[in-house]
Amino acid sequence: MFRPTIRDVARKAGVGIGTVSRVLNNSPKVTPETRQAVLAAIAELGFRPNTIARQLPRRTRLHNIGVVTQPFINYQAFAAQMRGLQLGLYDYDSKRYEMVLYSVRSLAHFDEQLTAIVRTGTVDGLIIIDFDLLDEQKQMLRDAGLPFVGLNHLQDADWPCIGADNHLGGYLAASYLLDLGHTDIAYLGDEFVDTFEFKTSGQRYEGFRRALAERGLPAKDEYVRLGFHDYDVAIELATELLRLPDPPTAIFAMCDMQALACLDAARRLGLRVPEAVSVMGFDDLETSYHVGLTTVRQHFEPAGRLAVQYLLALIDGAPPPPPVLPPPEVIPRQTTRPLAGKGAV
Amino acid sequence: MFRPTIRDVARKAGVGIGTVSRVLNNSPKVTPETRQAVLAAIAELGFRPNTIARQLPRRTRLHNIGVVTQPFINYQAFAAQMRGLQLGLYDYDSKRYEMVLYSVRSLAHFDEQLTAIVRTGTVDGLIIIDFDLLDEQKQMLRDAGLPFVGLNHLQDADWPCIGADNHLGGYLAASYLLDLGHTDIAYLGDEFVDTFEFKTSGQRYEGFRRALAERGLPAKDEYVRLGFHDYDVAIELATELLRLPDPPTAIFAMCDMQALACLDAARRLGLRVPEAVSVMGFDDLETSYHVGLTTVRQHFEPAGRLAVQYLLALIDGAPPPPPVLPPPEVIPRQTTRPLAGKGAV
DNA sequence: ATAAGCTGTGGAAACGTTTCCACGCTCATA
DNA sequence: TATGAGCGTGGAAACGTTTCCACAGCTTAT
To answer: Cis peptide leading into B218, omega within 30 of 0?
Structure first.
């Protein structure tokens, strides 16, 4: 198929290629008549600028943003975040940005991908989901002039991070269970620094512990179970908890996937939820609604959307929006209930 | 930051740029010693070929595949498909293909995106999820020499489509319910040709109807409820069915989302599942496991993976793998049960 | 009348690769 | 010794844009 180039357009419109380029890029220095003629030629030829050629000269906007992620730790959360990113891109539809997905398999692979992205220079900016950046990595991105925004971090780092306040979320969850009268509350989550060095679990646990401490309750070591982020592992940890001689009356799992595993474990042991044990998660996935899981909602979509807005502002050198999200909130459903009777023991 | 180019590498290695290019592209026509020298220079400079410049000369592989999709019809299915695509790309890791996401909002937008993709020529091939192609569109892609593979279609069209056999799936679902003794079975699904002109619902219904017909049962019109693909709409349709003077004893919903809506509707009406009514879906989402929904599993991940394999074969002019997937299969869970008693009425 | 400044325009150069042609070397063959 | 084929190599040309410099034509100030 014949693909007209900018030169064909110029010839047809009887102008120079520079003028066509200026029309394409909305330069003000073109008279209305010239612009009309060029636009007519463009329409007639069905011309579209070749985005690749457009990206070659170094100073140009590439109209690509990269998304770096380990997407398969949680399908539903990943999808919700992607949805948010798309919504953000729709907001800036006229800029015609596209999204390039870099999926990462390990921490080493992450560094490798990051280096490759910088070296090959195919994106205008980067959204980094979940991963934390080392100082060298930040420096590398800054040296390359590549703006970057994090998604799913606490906002206290030295780079813009948009995500749920994990500490507060953990605090709210524990407070909710405490208000129901529970005192023997277990925490089930990832290692505080996991394979990918995600620190989410530690942050949520901190909030959890603070809520207990405020009410003068210690966090019992045997009630804290940490393991690799995986459904089957979570089932095992939950089973251990439920089989303790003095089992907890409530479990707070650091994510819904693990909370669902708790439900599964209880079912396999013949324990009823919430009668025998209350279970609470964190995320508010689609599944949680259908299962009736009490959880802490974090706002995946708004976060993704905000991350895009923030990044595009950085790219354009505009003032970025305040990186403020609605705070996490407890969504009470059917897997928790007030502690009955035991208080009187 | 200084980005070394192929010329820097050539100078350092004391060879010509052509030789460096040949090393980069694994041409056999380089002596081992020369190759070593070039590789050493590449390593020393930390050189990475600029992927954009690499894409400019027209005959080149672009190392991009485009994915065109309406991603938000079903989050979980979308995520599973993406996962499959990523797995497929991992299989061909050495080729370093990347994925560019084109998300589509409407049928008109689909055509627009397709035209833009062809005109700007930024991808080597296209995976088209769910959407059907018009003859003109197929022709346009063929004229442009752009290979394309469909994901989620029946395999009888005149282009390679990888997806569940919807007809068979519908047939299996109905057969399963019939084997349980049900005869009053409702079908709940999308319009047979919906907003996006997806024909999935019609295909699944055809299989469903054939199973009934084989046992000499007519499909009662009042038991067929079609509507826009949306949770709330599905709840309404399900409520209508359950409120019929002579309600069905089983409902087959054309997707799990709608089946979950049936469960929700039954709950709101105070009806127990499966005691009052059996409910069966199609997809086997994550949620379905947790909810215990009987369903027909379609193999999203293998499908995505196969689609990538197929497309990369087309791009390379190699013989594509047979586009054969494991057939859909019924996954019995807790939302269906044998019809008890009613047969004796 | 001349100089200076401004505006719109044309087109060469640059971006970093791949491709392709030409060249020189080696080795087999006549 | 002369010829031809084959192989590895060098580097110019090409890809389609943007950028930037130069210039023509005007207006305004001197």
So the answer is: no
Nearest CA in chain B to A65: B100
A321 secondary structure, DSSP code: P
A48 and chain B in contact, CB less than 8 A: yes
Domain coordinates of chain B in residue numbers?
A: 6-49, 64-164+300-325, 166-298+330-344
A145 contacts A297 by C-beta, under 8 angstroms: no
Structure tokens at A89: 């891109």
Cβ atoms of residues A67 and A127 within 8 Å:
yes
Q: Pick the more confident residue, B192 or A60.
A: B192
State the Cα–Cα distance between residues A178 and B26, nearest whole angstrom: 64
Choice between B2 and A78, residue whose per-residue pLDDT is larger:
A78
Rounded CA separation B309/B320 (Å):
7
Sign of CA dihedral B183, B186, B187, B191: positive
Whole-number Å distance, CA A338 to C1' D16? 69
pLDDT at residue B156, as a whole number:
63
Which residue from A3, A286, A287 is facing B121, i.e. has the nearest CB?
A3
B54 vs A151, which has greater pLDDT?
A151
A121 near A55, Cβ under 8 Å? no
| Topology of the domain covering A64-163+300-325 | Rossmann fold (3.40.50)
Q: Which CATH superfamily is domain B64-164+300-325 in?
A: Response regulator (3.40.50.2300)
CB-based contacts of A16, cutoff 8 Å, min separation 6: A10
More confident residue, A213 or A121: A213
On whether the CB atoms of residues A281 and A253 are closer than 8 A, the answer is yes
DSSP state of A100: E
pLDDT in tens, B100-126: 888 888 888 898 888 878 877 778 889
pLDDT at residue A187, as a whole number: 98
Which bases of chain D come closer than 7 Å to a protein CB?
A: 7-21
CATH of B6-49 given 3.40.190.80, 1.25.40.10, 1.10.260.40, 3.40.50.620? 1.10.260.40
The dihedrals phi and psi of B14, each to the nearest 5 degrees, come to: 70, 35
pLDDT tens digits for B115-166?
A: 878 877 778 889 999 888 988 999 888 877 788 999 987 666 788 999 899 9
Nearest-neighbour CA in chain A from B217: distance (Å): 33
Would you state the pLDDT for residue A59? 59
- Which residues 6+ apart lie within 8 Å of B132 measured at CB? B150, B153, B157, B197, B198, B199
Chain B residues within 8 A of A122 when measuring between CB atoms: 50-52
Residue B337 has a pLDDT of: 96
The integer distance in angstroms from the CA atom of B4 to the C1' atom of C11 is 29
Here the tokens at position A10 are 């110029």
Where are the strands (E) in chain B, listed by range? Answer: 64-69, 98-103, 125-129, 148-151, 161-162, 185-190, 224-227, 250-253, 278-280, 295-297, 329-331
Residues A186-240: tens digit of each pLDDT: 999 999 988 778 889 999 999 999 999 999 998 899 999 999 999 999 999 999 9
Residue of higher predicted confidence among A344 and B93? B93
Higher pLDDT, B182 or A120: B182
- Give me A96's structure tokens: 């015609």
